[in-house]
Amino acid sequence: MAETFIKIPDNYSGYHLSHFCVPKHYEEDLEDIMIPWGLIQDRTERLARDVFQDVKNEPLTALCVLKGGYRFFTDLLDKLTALNRSQASVSVPLYVDFIRLKSYENTDSTGDIRVVGGDNMVSLSGRNVLVVEDIIDTGKTMEKLLAILKNHQPKSVRVASLLVKRKSDSTGYRPDYCGFEIPDKFVVGYALDYNEYFRDLNHICVINDSGKKKYLTPQG
Ligand code: HPA
Ligand code: MG
C-alpha cells in the first residue's frame, strides 16, 4: 500500500537556489530548497481531496494554527472551496477559525501551552474540526492542543499538517493528513519562520549557519 505521506530521505540534498526564484534578501541565508512552492501546491490539492472525501456532506470547521499555518491553511481552503464548486453531488460547508498557541512563561520544564484567539472555541462544540498546522516537530504541542480541544466537545477532530519532522524525541504522534515527512533540519519559508524572518519566502528551504547567525535576534 502506498504511504499516506511523502517521505523526504535524510540524504536528500534539495534543489539549488539558482534553479528557482528566491528573494534577494535571503539568498545568502539558505542552504537549499527542500520543497518548491509548486510541489507544495500539488500535494495540498491531494490532501484537500482526501479531506473532502472523508467529510462529505457534513460541515467542517477548519482551525488555523497561527502564525506558521497560515499559508498552508489558505491554500488548503482554496482547494477545498474549488472542490465545492466543481462537484455537483457532494459539498462541504466550511467555517474557519484562527488560534495561536503560547507557552506558559516561567514553566519551561512542563512546556504547557495555552490557546489565544479563536472564538473562545465555543463554536467548536458539536463540529467536525480540522486543525491545520505547518509542522509537527516532537508532537508534544499537538497532543496538548488536542487535549484542550476535546474539552470543547467537538463532534470529531482531525489534524492536517503540511510537514512532520523525523525526530528521535518524537512522541510518535501522527496527523491524519500529512504533506511531507522531512529530515531533522530547521526549515523556513511558506510561513514557517526563524525568529519571525522567512515567512515571506515561497519555497520551504533549509536555513544555513550564516542565516541562523544573521537573524538571531527576533524581528521587532
Ligand atoms: N522551522 C520552523 N518552525 C519550526 C520548525 C522548523 O524546522 N520545527 C518546529 N518549529
Ligand atoms: Mg506551527
Automatic annotation (TrEMBL):
GO CC aspect terms: cytosol
Gene3D superfamilies associated with the record: 3.40.50.2020
Pathway listed: Purine metabolism; IMP biosynthesis via salvage pathway; IMP from hypoxanthine: step 1/1
Major site of localization recorded for this protein: cytoplasm
Necessary cofactors: Mg(2+)
Catalytic activity, reaction form: IMP + diphosphate = hypoxanthine + 5-phospho-alpha-D-ribose 1-diphosphate
Domain Phosphoribosyltransferase per the UniProt entry, residue ranges: 41-194
Subcellular location: Cytoplasm
GO BP field: GMP salvage; guanine salvage; hypoxanthine metabolic process; IMP salvage; purine ribonucleoside salvage
The protein's enzyme class: transferase
GO molecular function, one term: hypoxanthine phosphoribosyltransferase activity
UniProt-listed PANTHER family: HYPOXANTHINE PHOSPHORIBOSYLTRANSFERASE (PTHR43340:SF1), HYPOXANTHINE-GUANINE PHOSPHORIBOSYLTRANSFERASE (PTHR43340)
Protein name: Hypoxanthine phosphoribosyltransferase
